[in-house]
Amino acid sequence: MNDNPYSTAVLAWYQANARDLPWRDPDASPWSVLVSEIMLQQTPVVRVLPAWEAWLRRWPTPAALAAEPSGEAVRMWNRLGYPRRALNLHACARTIVERHGGEVPDDHAELLALPGVGPYTAAAVASFAFGQRHAVLDTNVRRVLARAVSGVQYPPKAQTRAEVALAEALLPEEPAVAARWAVAVMELGALVCTARSPACPSCPIAADCAWRAAGRPAYDGPPRRGQTYAGTDRQVRGRLLAVLRDSPGPVAKPALDAVWDEPVQRERALDALVADGLVDPLDDGTYALPG
Ligand code: SF4
Considering the domain boundaries, does residue 205 fall inside one? Predict the structure, then answer.
């Protein structure tokens, strides 16, 4: 049963238009789905694809990753950004081996208990890897529901309980259909109901979209800040980590100092990397990826 006013149209659209992404393959392992979800949290699909393939080639199971030092995960993460996710995946792999016999758990609460796995990722893995019925709310889904159901251009900045309740109310009863709805509505947000230029004329739910019916009123909430990167501490941290990743062994401080002229910001960025466990300061004054 496709029981919400949008699901029949969205599921049919997905059937015809979904991107052929490898982690959506019916044979994709739960581990590969978990890796994809952690990578996709803050990185676009085109950049995730080659990194995901390389990662799974090297570490096809949690046990394979758990057997290596966490620094190798950071090195392999390369330029995907937000590299704490590499440490989280490594910690996930070790926890999965220690507590779950090397198999990604299918229980939502056990998924949520894994390092770095929040409500979204737990719901996504339970739904996409195990076909369960969960509200899976990422930015794409939140935007589609805000427009189609609530009639506003953008969802609130931080996720609200009302959004979760709405997403749960829309979930089809049948778990397999609910899981397909979850990925389909997400894909609709990624490909059609995009943030800046929603393609309403080719949208399968245009006739039932509250925002469109209201004449697409302009957003009037608090200012929406785009993410800047140039000149930020995040950029400095990225450069520092790149030096360490590209070096086979520990790196002397001057090699790190060379990546950024401004010393206060540079030291702050290096301190943050050390505090996050992404870089180890060694006793001889050099720096290395974690062992
Ligand atoms: S009609 Fe337009 S705004 Fe409404 S859900 Fe479709 S693409 Fe989004």
Answer: no
Question: What tens digit of pLDDT does each residue of 126-167 get?
Answer: 999 999 999 999 999 999 999 999 999 999 989 999 999 999
Q: How many domains does the chain have?
A: 1
For residue 281, list its beta bridge partners: 287
Has 168 been annotated as catalytic? no
Q: Atom of ligand 1 at shortest distance to CA of 209?
A: 4
212 lines ligand 1 (CB under 6 A): yes
DSSP 158-181: S--HHHHHHHHHHS-SSHHHHHHH
In a domain, 253, yes or no: yes
Contacting residues for 68 by C-beta, under 8 A, at least 6 apart: 59, 90
Residue 114: CB within 6 Å of ligand 1?
no
Mean pLDDT by 10 residues, the chain (291 residues): 86 97 96 97 93 98 98 94 95 98 98 95 97 96 97 93 96 96 97 95 97 91 72 91 93 94 92 93 94 86
Q: Ligand 1 mean position to 200 CA, how many Å?
A: 5
Answering whether pTM is above 0.85, one says: yes
Residue 114 in domain: no
What's the domain range around 272? 233-288
d(CA 186, CA 137): 8
149 CA from centroid of ligand 1 (Å): 10
Give the model confidence (pLDDT) of 109-118 as tens digits: 999 999 999 9
Ligand 1 pocket check for 85: Cβ under 6 Å? no
Residue 152 lies in a domain: no
Q: Which position among 37, 72, 163, 187 bears the catalytic label?
A: 37
pLDDT digits (tens, 9 = 90+) for 244-256: 999 999 999 999 9
DSSP structure class, residue 258 = T
- Residue 281 host element (H or E): strand 280-281
Is the CB of 287 inside a 6 Å radius of any atom of ligand 1?
A: no
